[in-house]
Amino acid sequence: MSRYDAVVVGSGPNGLAAAIVLAQTGRRVLVREAQQTLGGGMRTLELTLPGFMHDVCSAVHPLGICSPFFRTLPVAEHGLEWVHPSAPLAHPFDDGAAAGGAVECPAGLFHDG
Ligand SMILES: Cc1cc2nc3c(=O)[nH]c(=O)nc-3n(C[C@H](O)[C@H](O)[C@H](O)COP(=O)(O)OP(=O)(O)OC[C@H]3O[C@@H](n4cnc5c(N)ncnc54)[C@H](O)[C@@H]3O)c2cc1C
User: Fold this and answer.
1) Residue 89 domain-assigned (yes or no)
2) 62 lines ligand 1 (CB under 6 A)
3) Of the chain's two ends, which shows fewer C-beta atoms within 10 Å, N or C?
């Protein structure tokens, strides 16, 4: 334990954000994750059929684009590329119809180049 200044339990978006902020101040941080893959609700897993990848809690991704904190991180340097579908949000109805929507960030926070 003395090798670390802080231990973060869980590697979801909140845990990783806390760990990054602590590490940015020069502190030695250990992140402990109970699952076999990192990311908590941010994970992408083969939940249904082979080859079909699902965002376990997909709202984390669109909200990540707008997050003032995430926007301070050089995530593109680590290989992250935001892909923008024509319909980022949709809700199916019982009659087979669906409603779609767009993700808009507060003015000035997000400019998609
Ligand atoms: C099915 C589903 C749908 C959701 N949809 C939305 C949505 O539409 N919009 C929205 O805003 N939010 C949604 N959420 C919530 C969103 O996923 C959370 O707000 C977000 O993931 C919280 O991040 P977190 O880091 O706090 O926790 P999590 O992402 O849950 O991560 C916690 C991590 O801690 C690990 N952990 C827990 N206990 C221990 C332990 N004792 N030791 C080690 N590791 C541990 C877990 O394995 C996990 O990886 C949804 C959640 C679920 C489950």
Assistant:
1) no
2) no
3) C
- Number of residues that this document lists for the chain: 113
- Whether residue 11 contacts residue 31, with contact meaning beta carbons closer than 8 Å, is answered with yes
The phi-psi region of residue 101 (left if phi > 0; otherwise alpha if psi is between -120 and 50; otherwise beta) is beta
The count of structural domains within the chain is: 1
pLDDT exceeds cutoff 50 at 108: no
- Compute the average pLDDT of residues 1-5: 84
Q: Of 106, 73, 102, give the one whose Cα is nearest residue 90.
A: 102
CA atoms within 13 A on the CB side of 45: 13
Question: Which domain range does residue 44 map to?
Answer: 6-82
Pocket test for ligand 1, best of 36, 43, 60 (most atoms within 8 A of CB): 60
- Rounded to the nearest angstrom, the distance between the alpha carbon of 55 and the centre of ligand 1 is 12
CATH code at 78?
3.50.50.60
